[in-house]
Amino acid sequence: MSTPTTFRVALRGNAILTSPRFNKGTGFTLKERKEFGLTSRLPSRVNTLDEQCARAWDQLQSRETPIRKNSFLQSMKEQNWVLYYTLLLRHLRDLIPIIYTPTEADAIANYSHLFRRSEGMYLSFPDMDTMEEDFLEQTKGRDIDLVVCSDAEAILGIGDQGVGGIGIATAKSVIYTLIGGIDPSKALSVTLDVGTNNEDLLNDHLYVGWPEKRVRGEAYDKFIDKFVQLVRKYFPHSLLHFEDFGVTNAERLLELYRDHHSCFNDDIQGTGAVTLAAVMAAIGVTKSKLVDQRFIIYGAGSAGLGITRQLRDGIVTADSISPAEANKKFYLIDKFGLIKQSLGESKIRQDLSDFVRPDDEWDGVPTNDKGEITLLEVVKKIKPTVLIGCSTHAGGFTKEVVQAMADGCDRPIILPLSNPSRLVEVDPKDANEWTGGKALLATGSPFPPAKMPNGKDYVIAECNNALIYPGLGLGAILSKSRTISDEMIIAGARRLASLSPALTDPDNALLPDFGDSPAVNFEVAIAVAEQAISEGSAGVDWKKEEVREKAKEKQWEPIYGEYVYDKDGET
Question: Is 58 assigned to a binding site?
Answer without folding.
Answer: no
